[in-house]
Amino acid sequence: MGTLSLSDYEDVHIWAPWGHISGRWYGNRTERPILAIHGWLDNLGTFDTLIPLLPDYLGVLCIDLPGHGCSSRLPPGMRYSVADYVLIIARVMKEYKWPRVSLMGHSMGGVICYLYTALAPHTVDMVIALDILLPPMESPRLLSNWSTFLDKHLVEEERSEQGAMHEPPSYTLSQLRSVLSKGTFESVPQESAHHLLYRSVSKSLLYPERYYFSKDGRVKYYVLFPINPGLAAEMARRIKRKPYLVIKGSDSSFINSSSQEVISILKSQNPHFEIHEVSGAHHVHLTNPEPVAKYIVPFLRHHRPPPVASWSLVSDDAALSKKERRRAQERFFSRNLKRLSKL
To answer: CA-to-CA distance for 134 and 122, rounded, in angstroms?
Structure first.
């Protein structure tokens, strides 16, 4: 078995009442894939460096959330919210008639996965959360954010109206890389910014060497889904024994002390819960994908194993113990990683 290729994909457009949800389905399109959801202000390009390290027997459908990437914007007068984004999972499942879903999410995408899994655990067979676990906890600081967001949302609505008549401000690609990197607090270094820019900028019609941001500015001021410790704990209990893998960036604070109670609950009730730390910042899956994939690949092969027909029934694997089989899977990953490094 090999690994996925970034060049082997199908662009998809999933119908929605306001337009469409754009996505790319990588690899195997004959079986239900992993549904991958990006973080706030990002797009499906966030998975570009991770995709080629994942096994090719299982496809990955990466989507752009509404207002992001190439997906349609919400109609004028509407606000983006985490609660409504949770419904996107159900909408994608309905489009493809999936009875169950395998989820992978980074940042806000991971929050969406956590909320959906707690609400509909019977429809989820596994979750991979990249440098996130919970929505933000309720705090007085959030009131200040909401107050600011109200005014700025209205400003963005006016800009959208003006943008329909006039081209937005444009920049060179070098300037865009710098702006994007600063916006992530250098979690995405400038040399990695192109993975996110190609689905979030449009070429200027006025200045041939310039581009402008094409995502909906209203997504910057979305409605959060703050929770309290009691609600977070109850959600964790509802997840029960679902396979759940959490990968934390060592230099990131998105998984912190406020997550400890939920982590304790998941560890105590769920033998399929794993949490690992990998060197890197919030976008660790983009900037340091190899050690991230080292945990994801065995997790996938254990909880979404390849079809029996793809394995030799007379091979030594049939006699391996559970631990030995996991070591064999890790060796398989290492061999493919070395092969990719030579390309």
So the answer is: 20
Listed residue (149, 93, 146, 142) closest to 122, CA to CA: 93
User: Which neighbouring-strand residues pair with 15?
Assistant: 20
Condensed to tens digits (0 to 9), the pLDDT of residues 256-302 reads: 999 999 999 999 999 999 999 999 999 999 999 999 999 999 999 99
- Report d(CA 340, CA 343) in Å as an integer: 5
Per-residue tokens: 271: 């033998």
Where do the DSSP E strands lie in 101-232? Answer: 101-106, 124-130, 201-203, 211-213
Distance in angstroms (rounded) separating the CA atoms of residues 143 and 326: 47
Backbone angles phi, psi at 246, to 5 degrees: -115, 130
Sign of CA dihedral 320, 325, 331, 336: positive
What contacts 275, CB < 8 A, 6 or more positions away? 245, 246, 247, 248, 263, 267
* List of E strands, 174-306: 201-203, 211-213, 244-249, 273-278
